[in-house]
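Can you make up a protein sequence with its backbone structure tokens?

===
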Amino acid sequence: MANNLTTLSHKLRIARNEADEDAALLDLTSAGDHPNMPEIIGATGVGVVDILSEKVVSTTETEVGALHFLFSGGSAADKTFGFRLLTWGNSNYPAKLTAVGTGILGTQAVVTYPHNGSVATSKFWADTLVLTWTNWFKGMKSTDITGHNTYADVWFDAAGFRYWKIEITDADGTTGTEAGGVACYYGYW
């Protein structure tokens, strides 16, 4: 029996660095066209993920088939947050709001951050992700909508779209039930 994967998986990458809720969400009425797309994510971990960047996809790979997003935050289990997922096509597409949802942190701790290996303190993986609205032609799915104290993720076929942005809502870190310092990671296959 062969000991290999037929679907290659890749390491997790940062889609949004740890921060409280976004101060402003992308305004599709005035900034939703391609020329106004936010900058590609850099060292700050803020911006848009380019899934076809040479830093992400190796020279032997030609496409990304599917994506999944995982969330973490603090400062305790059962803290909540909201999220929005937006995308742009390759060169001249307008922004497309593809999903809106909510998350709840579980008890599985983030011990080390996946993107840089540093030690995490009082951070937990979201074990509940509920998609409250979607606008995607191939379907999106959460792997856990009730919470089982392991990480949940949202996954879907990338359908040829290149740029992705995660926005966090309702996570100021100071309200009793709201998470703070929410980060998002992505993987692809």
Remarks:
- The chain has a mean pLDDT of 89.
- Residues 13-188 form one domain.
